[in-house]
Amino acid sequence: MRPAARRALFGTVLAFVYAPILVVVVYSFNDSRLALAWQGFTLRWYRSLLASAEFRTALENTLVISLSATLLATALGTLLAVGIHFLRFPGRRALQALLYLPVVMPDIVMAVGLLALYVATHLTLGRMSVILAHVSFQISFVALVVGGRLQGFPVSLVEAARDLGAGPLAVLRRIVLPVIRPGIAAGAVVALTLSVDDFLITYFTAGAGASTLPIRIYAMVKRGVTPDVNALATLLLAFTIGVSLLALRGVGRRGGTEGAA
Amino acid sequence: MRVERRGRLVAATVGPAALFLLVFFLVPFGVVVIYALSPAAPGGGVGPGFTLEQLGRLWNADYLRIVGRSVRLAAVATLLTLAIAYPVAWAIARLERRRQLLPLLVIVVPSWINLLIKNYAWITILRREGLVNTALTGLGITSEPLPLLFTEGAVVVGLVHSYLPFMLLPIYAALDRIEPALIEAARDLGATPGRVFRRIVWPQSLAGVAAGCTFVFVLTLGSFVTPDLLGGARGMMIGNLIQNQILQVRNWPLGAALSVALTVVVVAAIGGALVLATRAQRGRTA
């Protein structure tokens, strides 16, 4: 491909991908409720957003739900990956295959299933039902990321430690955890962003009381295009991109020092 | 003794997550399957007994039209995404390795942005008072604003925009593995660029193309947000019909039957892609 053709191709695709998002960000600073024309820079949409009680509730719900779900899913997913890698037991292959199902299952089907379960068991919809729902799709991602990190980790090393008298907990703490720590961190970040971003499964399982930031955006968008939505969208966008970039840098740096050691 | 201890280790590591996935993933799907085979109760919800009535009701002209539209829009979005992603992936793969990272990152970053935000962005552009219509009427190209939002076209644009990275990355990964010397050798021996593409590049990128197409087709087929925000009533897809049946009409059996049908199509698409991929792999090693 000639450089000129390549530049034209990159430019066109870049514009298609980023221009719509840029429009949202730019208009969140535009000092006009209706006009498409630029009326000057303002932060008043952010101020009115931060002052609204609905936004604060949604932010609090998002923080409580995402942090609890991520903590639980990271613990369960890490243990699962370690067990699958180091132990041989009946049903191991089936469990490995099962891990991919929540990844490929359409969100809407998981949402319907979880709501059906909650209705059938009379579980009250709220933060708890959403946390459990999030963990059910987060576990797979954590286990797959940590499992990837474990690939090539010699089982013989663990067996040697066990033969020398180390207990299972000591092996886990002293040998396995130090190696997979970057994997756990990466898995937790993936799980956290999935949880913060999730709309559909939360929409089905939250009930009236536990609306999160994406639910808030959906409700606002349904009511029409307003500068407040632009401001909220820009904040959420900055958060997910920021966290992901930080995680990427962290993983890259750790990988680098290990390569040097 | 040793076996018993190993059993306890398995229970301690794998046990909690397996139990959780059983209760909150497998059981819910089982409930959906049972609901799909149950009669609808008159007041909403599920009645006792077993019936194939709901699965039969899927063969109704209204539902079939929505299912047909879902498959059509997902297929069109997949092909368009492929048409955009392939040349870009090729251009990136042909760069020097140290110059590949930036364009890849630029492509990946939007996949971290919330789907609602990406679709909302298109509303601000496509609506009656949006950027495109303001520009068109302002320049005197059209006298009336065009109906761009709430069309099938708007849904396809939103889907392509959202899922481009899922197509691009697997194709890039496949193209990146092609030995540049192979292409140079073919050129030196007089092969035209078209022939090099048909005989070397395309066959070796097929696994990536299959993976990308599967990702995008499966993700778009089950979508709810994009057709809801950009399609309206005229762009309704299976996901919207399921949501409508469960949350509004409260016809659980029909919503469950549609969910099972969607899952079957998704699993069949993934299974088909896996079979193709293994066959292609075997063909190459043989």
Could you explain the architecture of this structure?
The complex is a heterodimer of chains A (about 260) and B (about 290). By secondary structure, chain A is mainly α. Chain A is globular, with a radius of gyration of 23 Å. Chain A is built from 11 helices and no strands. The model of chain A is unreliable at about 255-260 (pLDDT under 50). Chain B has about 290 residues and is mostly helical. Chain B is built from 12 helices and no strands. Chain B has helices at about 1-35, 55, 60-95, 100-110, 115-125, 130-140, 150-175, 180-190, 195-220, 225-230, 240-250, 250-285. The longest helix of chain B has about 35 residues, at about 1-35. Chain B is globular, with a radius of gyration of 24 Å. Chains A and B meet through α1, α3, α4, α5 and α6 of A and α1, α3, α4, α5 and α11 of B.
Task: Describe how the helices and strands are arranged.
The complex is a heterodimer of chains A (261) and B (286).
Chain A: H1 3-27, H2 44-51, H3 53-86, H4 92-104, H5 107-120, H6 127-150, H7 155-163, H8 168-197, H9 200-205, H10 213-223, H11 227-260
Helix pairs in contact in A: 1-11, 2-11, 3-6, 3-8, 4-6, 6-8, 7-8, 8-11, 10-11
Chain B: H1 2-36, H2 53-57, H3 61-93, H4 101-108, H5 115-126, H6 131-138, H7 152-176, H8 180-188, H9 193-221, H10 225-231, H11 238-249, H12 252-285
